[in-house]
Amino acid sequence: MSMLRRALSVSLLAGAATGALAESPGLGRIVTPEEAAHYDISIAPDGGGLPAGGGTATLGRDVYEAKCLACHGEKGAGKPNDQLVGGFGTLKGDQPAVKTIGSYWPYATTLFDYLRRAMPFNAPKSLTDEEAYAVTAYLLHLNSVIDESFVIDARSLPKIEMPNRNGFVRFAPGQ
Known about the structure:
Layout: H1 3-18, H2 33-39, E1 54-55, H3 57-67, H4 69-72, H5 108-118, H6 129-142, E2 152-153
Antiparallel strand pairs: 1-2
Helix pairs in contact: 3-6, 5-6
């Protein structure tokens, strides 16, 4: 059971056990399991939660050109804030870093998660799982992380080593 569903179940059970639902001010309503599932789409860095499906950069190019090009430019070149490709070697130095998929992003799985959840900007969550896999593959290919014909899916995506995988400092309270 996912964390969101577990929290909703615990909350509803606790409220029912104490009579809190009967004493509520009448605001809102109980979320159905189908509604919760629609928003419970988090993908962990280790690939936990990845859906069925798959895609390649070749397929992703068409989806990108139809749904992403307007904001991110041809081949991800975009404007400085919309740039998805390049920036290699810009994180270490005096100049501001160019944070792109290839120079900054630590996990390919969370790239998929972000694309599926938040893109395109004007219609978030509108990509099918296959489109999200394909666009992820296309962007990884443009950043020289995978070959154009490499198939990404729930098994292969977590195994992809991003160039900046080890570029983050672990933070633990008390250290």
